[in-house]
Design a protein that fits this description.
The complex is a heterodimer of chains A (114) and B (115). Chain A is mainly beta. In chain A, 0% of the residues lie in helices and 49% in strands. Chain A starts with a strand and ends with a strand. In chain B, the strands form 3 sheets. In chain B, strands 2, 5, 6, 10, 11 and 12 form a 6-stranded mixed beta sheet that branches. In chain B, strands 3-9-8-7 form a 4-stranded antiparallel beta sheet, with no helix packed on it. The radius of gyration of chain B is 14 Å and the shape is globular. The termini of chain B are far apart. The chains are: A mainly beta (114), B mainly beta (115).
Chain lengths: 114, 115
């Protein structure tokens, strides 16, 4: 158990609906990442927070995606007007500051858009 | 440009034999290297990392990895494979500047251990 919790584990939604995922990280870890992963592929970077500040958002990410981390604690990832291409595993990870620190991942939320 | 290559999509090994999963990298500064394992429908689990010091690093579940600066490689190894080692393995690298938070990921290698 890495201590990073994601909710829900699975989500099935109809195309066009909005969905929101939650990540509860390890409390003292300043860095928080969201990744997307499709079957058999490596994690694709979506966005990064350092404490409550969103420092980077992938240029590949459409405006339908938004993330927040209020007060530097839990984080949410919202996808508006979902499309079938959004179907994937969404992973949250966090770590301490420092280039040599490893990231700890949650179990992920698997999104299926029908 | 920073990059990670895992040249093998899949590696097949008989149980009890040694295994190697290959990783090569390219970064501008000093590399900080990581290996992760992923079981089906699960998140990634940290196995081991190289920051500095001894080129051979040991990690979880009997895995180790050897850092080779001249070959820019960080291959994952295990002396005797178990069927339970079957999973997807990812190599990642970070440029060794403290302000750098980005992890660059390889595409992954599927490891299949046959009984």
């Amino acid at each position: 158990d890495t201590g990073v919790s994601q909710d829900p584990r699975h989500k099935i939604t109809k195309r066009g609906q909005n969905v929101t995922f939650r990540c509860d990280p390890i409390s003292e870890h300043n860095r928080l990442y969201w990744y997307r992963q499709t079957l058999g592929q490596g994690p694709e970077f979506l966005t990064y927070f350092q404490n409550e500040a969103q420092l980077e958002k992938s240029r590949l990410l459409s405006d339908r995606f938004s993330a927040e981390r209020p007060k530097g604690s839990f984080s949410t990832l919202e996808i508006q007007r979902t499309e079938q291409g959004d179907s994937a595993m969404y992973l949250c990870a966090n770590s301490l500051l420092g280039a040599g620190t490893e990231a700890f991942f949650g179990q992920g939320t698997r999104l299926t858009v029908v | 440009a920073q990059s990670v290559a895992q040249p093998e999509d899949q590696v097949n090994v008989a149980e009890g034999n040694p295994l190697t999963v290959k990783c090569t990298y390219s970064v501008s500064g000093n590399p900080y290297l990581f290996w992760y394992v992923q079981y089906p429908n699960r998140g990634l689990q940290f196995l081991l990392k190289y920051i500095t010091g001894d080129n051979l690093v040991k990690g979880s579940y009997g895995f180790e990895a050897e850092f080779n600066k001249s070959q820019t490689s960080f291959h994952l190894k295990k002396p005797s494979a178990l069927v339970s080692d079957s999973a997807l393995y990812f190599c990642a690298v970070r440029d060794g500047r403290d302000s750098n938070y980005q992890l660059i990921w390889g595409a992954g290698t599927k490891l299949i251990i046959k009984p």
